[in-house]
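[#protein-structures] MJ: dropping MurR/RpiR family transcriptional regulator here for a structure pass
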Amino acid sequence: MPKDILSVIQANMNTFSKGQKLIARFILDSYDKAAFMTASRLGKTVNVSESTVVRFAAELGYDGYPAMQKALQEMIRNKLTSIQRIEVSNDRIGNQDILSMVMQSDMEKIRLSLEEVDREQFRQAVEAIVSARRIYILGVRSATALASFLGFYFNLIFENVVLMHTTSVSEVFEQMLHIGPKDVIIGISFPRYSARTVKAMRFARDRGARVVAITDSETSPLASIATHTLMAKSDMASFVDSLVAPLSLVNALIVAIGRRKNSDLSRTFGQLEQIWSEYQVYENPESDPGMA
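AK: finished. structure tokens for MurR/RpiR family transcriptional regulator:
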């Protein structure tokens, strides 16, 4: 099935029934909204039955409406502007309770990610990271939070971590000047994908480094570059990127590597506890006057 579903619809317009043409025209004109509608809602919007919508998906060669809907979503997610995101999410949320809707959506993304994550890719990524000479971590814009979280814990586990801070494209390559075949770069990006991250990962791959991508789908531009791809579902809640499932995946990666470095990690945290205590890094509950 071609990735560009709109081209398929346009090319087959003359073969559709009257009802299917109504669906087709709506998708061509408002694909950003259609991608997040149920079959029932799409049918009501264009005044056709839900079964007509389902048959339309089959006519295009999909194994059901959800498959067609997924194709639409994957096609548009990297193209939506922030304003379009707000419009689409307002339409999706409607009069629902926002707190429940967003948190339930996040839980669903974690469930789907758990079902679809490739365990062998995960294992291979762990092996590559543990055996690397240097570990580079890159995430920009909203993915900066994930990169910082990963970098914080990796710096406790390893002595060879480079958490890349970037304000320009040239700065990215300057920090990667010495990257080579014994190194690993972990690139993190979700729609809308960062061109800076893609370029950096391509540079690292061309230098012979192992490339680990943390992204959302096989159609992500990071996936085609990566040696190992770890996928987690993301979603948009208005202009906000929902990165709950990616954070859970990052957390699992940290724990898996911590298990591999268990003895070293025990010594490291033994030293850290002494430092934290000596320099009073954390509040001591026993010294709290309110607890006397």
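MJ: nice. The chain has 13 helices and seven strands.
AK: one more thing. Strands lie at 135-139, 161-163, 184-188, 210-215, 228-231, 235-237, 240-242.
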